[in-house]
Amino acid sequence: MRRMLLAAAAVLAFAGVAEAQSVRMSVGSYNLNNLPFPVADSLGFYKDEGLDVTTENFAQGGSKVLQALVAGSTDVAVGFYDHTIQMQAKRKDVVGFIQLARNSGLVLAGKTDTDFDPAKPETIKGKKVGITSPGSSSDFFVRYFLQQHGMNEDDVSIIGVGSGAAAVAALQQGKIDLLVNYDPAATIIVERGVGKILIDARSDEGAKEVYGGIYPTSVLYATKDYIDANPEVIQKVTNATVRALHWMRDHSAEEIVEKLPSDFVTGDKATYVKAVENAKAIFSQDGMFNTTDLETPLKVLKTFNEDVAKADIDLSKTYTNTFVEAAGKTTSN
């Protein structure tokens, strides 16, 4: 009888493992805009949904994740909403299904002795400007700033330097003159005395000053084909991520950092906690897309992206709130 019970338990355990649904998720970088994803993962929320998540981190930036998604080497991307607009202009259906960061989170920083003055935009001419990677939202930030002030990319040198510690080091070592990046890099620059923030789009007011409106950034997105073929997986991913957003809303920056894996924390812990505190305002409270806010990245892209400018973009095809709405009926705070 004991052997039979052990055998039955083994069968049940095997069945439980077999029932776990595999999903490949890729993240563009460990900047704080993407924070709800590692929070959900480290707290076991994806596992609770019966998901076996394989994660790949492309430290070079979100454009690399987009390439992986289109190539079929990942199922779900943790990246920025504006990529869905770019893809529609190329007649590829990429759909955001939950919003992580409702606002930009970007800053433009320079060393303490920089002669760039945002009040005199032309002083940016000739500067080496660091971004996460070409085609990323930090790249769009620079190009839009130049466009708004009668300049273009030929007036500066735009250089991909990644994010986090690598980006800070590039500024500190003089490889670049200015840096457009996210937290934790933004906070590290100030806390370590590396430089100062010259343009800050982390707050709603700052974003409106830079873009003319709120600029949604980090989302989870997938191809329409994958979503249509795997709605159950997408729903489970959404349930877990909404749960993470609620958890982050109700916990302090210090409590959030305590739950993160050590390889996610950039620099010393105290500075990283400050970075999370500085970034908390950008996170979505519920994961829902706001249709008015989605107009901002479309407007920005149209100013310098020829494909988007020529295309008849239907924003309703770039996102869906269906899975978040369903998650709201079953996910507790």
What does this structure look like?
Strands 2-1-3-10-4 form a five-stranded mixed sheet, with helices on both faces. A five-stranded mixed sheet has the order 7-6-8-5-9, sandwiched between helices. α6 (137-148) links the parallel β6 (128-131) and β7 (157-160). The N and C termini lie far apart (44 Å). By secondary structure, it is an alpha/beta fold. The chain has two domains: 2-103 and 215-328, D-Maltodextrin-Binding Protein, domain 2 (3-Layer(aba) Sandwich); 107-211, D-Maltodextrin-Binding Protein, domain 2, CATH 3.40.190. Helices cover 44% and strands 16% of the residues.
CA-to-CA gap between the ends?
A: 44 Å
CATH topology of the largest domain: D-Maltodextrin-Binding Protein, domain 2
Proportion of residues in extended strands: 15-25%
- Shape category: globular
Mean pLDDT: 90
Whole-number tally of structural domains: 2
Major beta sheet summary: 5 strands, mixed
Number of helices: 16
Q: What CATH architecture of the largest domain do you see?
A: 3-Layer(aba) Sandwich
